[in-house]
Amino acid sequence: MGRPSPLGNRVRELREERGMTQAELGEAIGVTRQTVAAIEQNRYSPSLESAFRIARLFERGVEDVFYWSGS
Amino acid sequence: MGRPSPLGNRVRELREERGMTQAELGEAIGVTRQTVAAIEQNRYSPSLESAFRIARLFERGVEDVFYWSGS
DNA sequence: CGCCCATGTCAAAAATAATTAACATGGGTT
DNA sequence: AACCCATGTTAATTATTTTTGACATGGGCG
Questions:
Q1: Is B69 a residue whose pLDDT tops 70?
Q2: DSSP letter assigned to residue A33
Q3: Measured between alpha carbons, how far is B13 from A43 in angstroms, rounded to an integer?
Q4: D5 C1' – A19 CA distance, angstroms?
Q5: Which residues contact A24 (CB under 8 A, 6 or more apart)?
Q6: Residue A7 CB closer than 7 angstroms to strand C?
Q7: pLDDT grade, residue A1 (50/70/90)?
Q8: Residue B1 confidence (pLDDT) above 70
Q9: A39, A47, A58, B33: least buried by Cβ within 10 Å?
Q10: Does residue B54 surpass a pLDDT of 70?
Q11: Which run of H or E residues covers position A67?
């Protein structure tokens, strides 16, 4: 299972606000829909590059999309 | 060589401002000094978790430490 | 009901990040 | 010169992320 992630994110919320599917979001930032699903469910910490791509797509700051939620 | 990273960072500058060595920074955030050196030289995109740890140590936002510099 | 579509999930493999253990270099100091 | 110390760098390995391909579920709609 891997240790719990200290990060949380609002990717799903922001994606749904825009009426996008996981597949569309993945396509837009260059990852697969499975990767988007894993990120939304916080199954692992994405690369900083993926995080920037998502934030830029949503026109938000990285820290508006991803946040520290524990040590 | 790997494709050029679209990210840049100010880790070295912020580390030096605080008079820390690469080894000390690595110890503080839980990675090795080689990893710190690689991040400073932008040899790869760190995990989002490492990026948050660095930013929090420096009491800065993630985007104040790391920035998008290309496509 | 039957058919899409979006999502969840899984296993195996590929790609990339990070570790470990070396050795090299240059600066400063004695 | 000899000695530290911080940094650079590399090869080999381990850990983690991401991909690929597959199959399952539930909702909406004909």
A1: yes
A2: H
A3: 32
A4: 56
A5: none
A6: no
A7: low
A8: no
A9: B33
A10: yes
A11: strand A66-68
Domains of chain A, with CATH numbers? 7-62 (1.10.260.40)
In chain B, % of residues over pLDDT 70:
97
pLDDT of residue A41: 97
- Answer whether any strand D atom is within 7 A of the Cβ of B21: yes
Flag if B52 and A68 touch (Cβ within 8 Å): yes
Alpha carbon A22 to its chain's center = 10
Q: Is the dihedral of CA B60, B62, B68, B69 positive or negative?
A: positive
Distances B3 to A34, B22, B38 between C-alpha atoms, Å: 24, 25, 15
Token pair for B44: 């790869």
**Residue A48: its chain B contacts at CB < 8 A?**
7, 45-48, 50-51, 66
Question: Counting Cβ atoms within 10 Å, is residue A27 exposed (0-12), middle (13-18) or buried (19+)?
Answer: middle
